[in-house]
Amino acid sequence: MDKTIDRTAYANPGDIELTRKAAGDNVELVTDRLRKMMPECGFGELGTCCVMCYMGPCRIDPFGQGTRVGVCGATPDVIVARNFLRSATGGASSHAGHARELAILLLEIAEGRAPGYKIREEGKLLSLAEKLGVPIDGRPVNAVAADVARKAFEDFGRQDGEPMNWIRARASRKEYEKWEKLGLLVSNPHNEIETAMHRTSMGNDADPMNLWIATLRMGMVDNFGGLMLATDLSDVIFGIPSPKVVTANYSVLKEGEVNIACHGHNPILASKVAEWADRLEGEAKAAGAGRVNVVGICCSGNEMAMRYGIPYAGHEAQTELFLVTGAIDAMVVDIQCIWPSLPAIAKCYKTRFITTVPFVRHPEAIHVDFRPEEADERAQEIVRHAIAAYGERKAAGIRARIPDVSSKLMTGISVESLVSVLSAVDAKDPLKPVIDAIAAGEIMGAVGMVGCPNPKLRDGAMAEKMAEGLLRNNVLIVTTGCVNHILAQGGFLTSDATERYAGPRLKKVLTAIGHAAGLGGPLPPVLHMGSCVDNSRIYDLLAALAGKLGVEISQLPVAGSAPEFITEKAISIGTFFLAAGILVHVAPAPRVFGSPFAVSLLTEKLPGVNGGKVLVAATPDAAVSGILAHLREKRQALGLPLS
Amino acid sequence: MDKTIDRTAYANPGDIELTRKAAGDNVELVTDRLRKMMPECGFGELGTCCVMCYMGPCRIDPFGQGTRVGVCGATPDVIVARNFLRSATGGASSHAGHARELAILLLEIAEGRAPGYKIREEGKLLSLAEKLGVPIDGRPVNAVAADVARKAFEDFGRQDGEPMNWIRARASRKEYEKWEKLGLLVSNPHNEIETAMHRTSMGNDADPMNLWIATLRMGMVDNFGGLMLATDLSDVIFGIPSPKVVTANYSVLKEGEVNIACHGHNPILASKVAEWADRLEGEAKAAGAGRVNVVGICCSGNEMAMRYGIPYAGHEAQTELFLVTGAIDAMVVDIQCIWPSLPAIAKCYKTRFITTVPFVRHPEAIHVDFRPEEADERAQEIVRHAIAAYGERKAAGIRARIPDVSSKLMTGISVESLVSVLSAVDAKDPLKPVIDAIAAGEIMGAVGMVGCPNPKLRDGAMAEKMAEGLLRNNVLIVTTGCVNHILAQGGFLTSDATERYAGPRLKKVLTAIGHAAGLGGPLPPVLHMGSCVDNSRIYDLLAALAGKLGVEISQLPVAGSAPEFITEKAISIGTFFLAAGILVHVAPAPRVFGSPFAVSLLTEKLPGVNGGKVLVAATPDAAVSGILAHLREKRQALGLPLS
Predict the structure, then answer these.
(1) DSSP-derived pairing of the beta strands B244-248 and B407-411
(2) What average pLDDT does range B556-575 have in this prediction?
(3) Interchain contact A172–B (C-beta under 8 A)
(4) pTM over 0.95
(5) Rounded distance, CA A52 to CA A58, Å?
(6) Which terminus of chain A is more solvent-facing, meaning fewer CB atoms within 10 Å of its CB: N or C?
(7) What gap in Å lies between CA A353 and CA A357, rounded to an integer?
(8) Is there a contact between B536 and B182 (Cβ–Cβ < 8 Å)?
(9) Given CB atoms, is B221 within the 8 Å cutoff of chain A?
(10) For residue A273, which of A353, A351, A380, A374 has the smallest C-alpha distance?
(11) pLDDT of residue A9
(12) Chain B nearest C-alpha distance from A601 (Å)
C-alpha cells in the first residue's frame, strides 16, 4: 500500500474541548466508562461464552483449560455460531421493525389515517408498484400505495415458503440466481427471526455450517425485509435525497436559538419535529429566542440532511458531548443507538430528554407517545417542550459552550440523484463515465465505508485514516451511517477534499465529472448515500454497475468496511454484503475467533463459494492494504489494468 | 412445613450402573462436563454480562469494582432485564415454531397434501372452530380445518394490533380482562419476537419496567402462540390423551428387538416412526429381531405415552445414558433439548443418530429430511436405518446392558379425560368433587411441577423430594415435561403412590375418586398432563376451576414449580404463569440477582399487581415450605380452612 498516509491527528477540537468541560462538570463520558471496563472479558470477545441454558453459563478456554465443550456438549464452533446468529438476529430485527413501521405508515397515509404525512414521490411509488406486480393503470395513488404496503405485510405473514416479494421485485438477477442455488432466498422475515432464536436455543442446531447459512439468510432478511424496504418506503413518503451542501459539526448549534437535537433513525419523527420547529417560530420568538434550530444526530442526522438539508450535528459517540455543550433545549429520540447514559447527562444541563417510541423508554426521560395518526399534535408538544426549556434554562443560568468547529459536506447521493448528476456527462448512458473510469484504472475500485464510531477505535481515527489511504490510492468511497459524520467532520465530503486527498487519477475523473455536472468543482471523493438503512442504496448501485457489465457483484473491484462498528445492526448489514459476495472489512474483531470453523469459513472457504470474505484489521494500514490487495485481485480477474 | 420428609436417596440404580459403564467405555457424560465447567461465571449467573454491542463485552461487578454501568450507560437493571427478555424470546420462539409447524400440517391435511396424517378429533376441531368464529354448520371437516389453520396464520401475520385470535378464543374471562388492563394482550407473536430483539439491542429500551412488561408479554406469546396452539392442534391431529398405564425407565429397551428411541418434542415425527415400527415388523424379523420397539425420551416420550401408550423411556439428562446401554439401534430426533454431545456417544455404540429437521442438524448425524408430505416414506427410511443398524451392531459385537429398572405410571390426564374420570363421581358437575375437596381442605392446594432435569440439582433429587414434601402436606401435583419422567421413575404416578406418599386427607379423597371412577384403586397423587407444551392444559384446568368458583386464577391455592429447569423454554413458560398471576418456584436461581429492580419486582411488587410471584429456592425444604406458605395465604384469603 501507499506509505504516504498523513499521520495528522484527526481529533475533533470540539470533542477535546467538551471532554474537558465534562470533566469540570463532573459528567462521566463513554471514554471514562470504557477505561473502567478494561480489560473486557476474553471469553466474550472470542465468542465462546454461552448462556443459552441453565446448565451453564459455560465458557471455553482457548488454551484448553477446563472443558473443551459446553455442559450440553456444544463445541466452540457451535457456541460461536449460535451467538453470532443471535447478534445478526438482533440487528435484522431492528431493521425489520424500522421498515415495518414505514409500511404501517404508508397504509395509514393511503387510508387517510395519518393526515400529517403524504406521498411525496409518486414516481418512485409507481415504479416500486410495477416491480411488485401491483396494478397501477388508472388507479388512484392511494390505492396503489395501500397495495404496496400490503405487499410488505404479505412478506411478514407468508407461510408458503415462496421468496419474499421484496426479493423477487428488487434483487439483481445474477445474485438472485446465486442466492437460489445457495438456499438464501428467504420467505418471511419473521419466520427467519423466530427460527433463528429457536435453532440457537439449547439442544437445537449443532451444525456450525447450518448455523452460518442461517446467518447469511439473516443478512438477506436484514437487506430485503429491513434496509431496502425502509429506504424504498422512506423515499416514497419523505422524498428521494438529492445533492445539497449542508453544515456539520458542533457549530450547528446556535446560541440564542431554541436548539432541538433529533437522535435516532426513523424520519417519521424527525421530519415532523423539523416541520413544526419552523411553524412555531413565533412561539420561540415570544420566548426570547431567535428561532427553533433543529439539528440531526446519528442516522436521524443522515435522514434529515440528505433530504431536507437540516444541519448535520454529529455521530453517536458525540451525543454525550452535544449535551455537554449545555446548548441543547431538547434531545428527541426514536429508536436505536440511544445510549442509556444520555438522560442523566441531559439533566445536568436541564435539557429535556424526550423519548417517543413505546419500546424505547428510559425512567429519567419525558415520554411523548408519538404516533403517526397524531404526528402534528405530538410534534408541536415536543417543540413546545424545547421552547419551554429554553426559558427555564436561561433562567437557571445554564451557560452554553459551543465549540467553534464547522465543516461542510455534500450529501444526498441516492442512486437516482447520482444517475441524474452523471446524466450531465452522458445523458444516454449515465453510468458509462464511471464504468469507463473503473475500466481505465482512473477509479481503482470503490469501498463502502459504513457503520459506527466505536470509542475503542475513535481515538486512533480509524475511519479518517482509512479514507485517506484509500483515496490516495484512487479508490472512490461511498458512505452511510455515523462513519459519514466522522468523514464529514474530517472534511472528506467536499470538492476541496478531492484536491487534497484523491490520488491523481481519481482527482482527474472526479474533476471532470464535477465540471461536466456543473457542480462548480470536482465531485467529492466520498459520496454520502445516507443512513444505515441506506446501505441498500449501495447494493442498488453495485447491482446497477454489475448489471451493466454483465457480471456478478462479487466480480467488481469493490469492498465494504465497517471500520469502527458497534451494533448488532452492523453485523446483520455486513452479513448481507457477505451474502452478496463482497469483501467486508471489520474492526474491532468480530466475536468468532474462538471458532476455527468460523475463521476458516469467513476468510478462506466462503470466498470460493460466493466471493464473500471477512477481513479483520484493526489498524488503518492493515485495513487499507488488505482492501487494496482485494481490489487488485478483482481487477486482475476482470483483465483490468492494475495501476 | 412438615419435617417428616423421607431422606431416602432417589438415585435411579440404572443411572448409577450406566454412569459406571460410561466411565469404563471412556464416554464423557454431562456430569463430567459440568464438573469441569465449575465454577461457572458469576457475572453470567447474576445476569450482569452484556454482549449486545461491540463497545463491550461489559460486566458489572456487584461489589462495585470497576464501573457500575456498561460502556453505553446501561445499568445492571437494564442489562439483566434485556438478557432475561432475550432468554424468554428464545423460549417463546421455540414454542411458536413448534406450534406453527402443526398449523402448517393441519392446512396440509385439510388440502390433502399430507396423506400420512388425518384429523383424529373432529369434536375438538369443531369446538375450537366455534371458539375461533369459524363457521362449521354443513361444512366438510377439511374446510373447517383449513380455516382453523388460517386463523393461526392470521395471528402470525396481523399488523392491526388486535389481540390474537387464540387469546380471544381461549383465554379465561377474568384473566382476559386483567391482561387487557395490564397491556398484555399481544397481537402478533412474531411482531413481539421481532420487537423484543429490537428493543434489547444496544441503545433501545432502557426502562427496566418496560422491559419486564415485554417479558410478561413474551409469556403470553409463549402460551397462546406456542403451548396452547400446539396442544390444541396436536389433539386435533393426534388425538386427545386418555388415561392409560405405561411402563417407564431403562427396562423399556428390549434385547433381541430393534430399539428406536424417539427424542425431541413434536408428535409429527414420533407418531409416524411408531406407526412404521409396527408395519415393518416383518423386516425386523427377517433381520433376526423380534420386532421394532419404539420408546420415547424427553417430551417425545410424553407425547407418545399419553396418546398411544408407547413406553416411556427417560428424561433429557438420561439421554446419554440410554445410548450407553448399547441397546439402541437408532436415536431419532426432531427439535429442542437434543444435546450436541449425543452423536459422538451414539457412534461409540454404532447407534445411528438421525436428525430430521432442517434447522436442527449435527455434523456427525445422519440426516433424513422428514417432511409431512412424505412422512410415510421418510418414517420407513428411519425404521429401516434402525433395522440395518441392528444387524451391523450384532455383527460388530456391541453388547447391550439394560439396567433392570422399571416402573409404571398412569398417564394421559388431559382436561377432557380428567373431566371424564370425574364424571364417574358426579356426572352433572364433574369438577365439583375436586372443588369440594379443596374447599374442605382435603386437597390443600395444587402444584404444577414442570420442566427439566438439571444435572446441577439432579444428584440431590430436588424434584422427588419436593413432590414427597408436597404430597405429605395434602397438596395434589400435576406434571408435564421431563419432571414427569423423574417422578414416574420415582414411582409417584401410581395408585400405590397415593398410599405411600399422600397425606391422610389427600389419600382419602383420591381413594374415593379412584374407586368411584372404577380405577381399581386410588387416583395417583401426581397427575401427568403431558409434555412441555401441555402446560397449556394446566392453565385450562386452572381456568376451569377458577371460572367455576367465580374467582381469578391468582386467587386459587395453587403454584407452579420448575424445580430443576434448564431451558429458555422454561423461562417463557414460567413468565406466562407469572402473567396469569401464579406463584412460580424455580431452581436454579434465575439470572436476575444482579438487578435489585428485578428482584424487587418479581418477589415484592408483582404480587400486588396481578398475583404473580417468583420464589427462588434451591433446596427441597425451602421450596416446599415457601409453596405451602403461599397456598395457606391463598386459602386464608378465600376463607378456606388451613388444616
Answers:
(1) antiparallel
(2) 98
(3) no
(4) yes
(5) 9
(6) C
(7) 13
(8) no
(9) no
(10) A380
(11) 65
(12) 15
